[in-house]
């Protein structure tokens, strides 16, 4: 949790409303030095629910928070949850049952993205991040459950897993889940996405925050690729191909009419694709989104791709003070 005062109360209430026995749970809220009153919201819940504990995360990022929480935990299972989300009443029970039934090393429910504000822009962002043109073949975003996948939005694990493969990489500010899941798969484990439960996630509310999120995701996916090449995935690489092709075509098009024609044809195909996706969404969600979605698709792909370009370029020069090795469960 970091500055989630608007969401952490609902998140905790949804966890406490689960049909799993409360005496079998410990809820560790790892706070990245919030300044918006989030800690006070958690403190108000602790008084009535002693199973909730508040831990401090000075580094302020997800990977260090996860490692602090895992090391402080005592249970046989670890469920990584997000303070910006809510969980149905069957979430904990279902994830543990599916973990044991399938023999997987990680299980999660599919993501249901909801608008982060009461506005047409926020709604459009939510709808496009649940469409293949927006997120590729990410099964957990498309609601394609009951299958083994490359990643799940969060994850339920047996505690012993971390003795085998280590904890979260603390040099990864983003994409730490995907890197961990890659290690699981490389070690012969499987990741299962169930349709029996889901995670409700609230998306960013504005175009500026959406582009910033896309840019940062792209920048850190480059860091992940270069430090761990096995994490490369085509859906993460598609925006990079789009941006380099677009910018390269503009530059080389000044030298060749053939390249100009190829660029025009490629852009026409791209805009036809995002227009088709926009119509598809608008017919289901409302025609008002038809005028917003093409631009949002473009901004998302371009921002993500530019982030990846910058991330690749700056990687050799960035001095990262966090350890690049994989932390172990025993380290303090």
**Number of β-strand runs:** 8
Task: Please estimate the helix content.
Answer: 40-55%
Query: How many DSSP H or I helices?
Result: 13
**Radius of gyration, in angstroms, nearest whole number:** 21 Å
Q: What portion of residues belong to β-strands?
A: 5-15%
Low-confidence parts:
none
- The secondary structure category is alpha/beta
Overall shape: it is globular
Explain this structure:
- There is one protein chain.
- The chain is of the alpha/beta class and 332 residues long.
- Among the domains are: 1-60, no CATH class; 229-317, no CATH class.
- The protein is built from 13 helices and eight strands.
- The strands form three sheets. Strands 4, 5, 6 and 8 form a four-stranded mixed sheet that branches.
- The longest helix is centred in the C-terminal third of the chain and has 29 residues, at 257-285.
- The radius of gyration is 21 Å and the shape is globular.
- The two termini are 21 Å apart.
- The model has no long low-confidence stretch (mean pLDDT 90).
Write the layout of secondary structure elements.
Layout: H1 8-16, E1 27-31, H2 38-46, E2 52-56, H3 62-72, E3 77-80, E4 85-86, H4 91-102, E5 106-114, H5 120-128, H6 132-135, H7 139-142, E6 147-149, E7 155-158, H8 161-165, H9 176-186, E8 191-202, H10 207-227, H11 234-253, H12 257-285, H13 293-314
Parallel strand pairs: 1-2, 5-8
Antiparallel strand pairs: 3-7, 4-8, 6-8
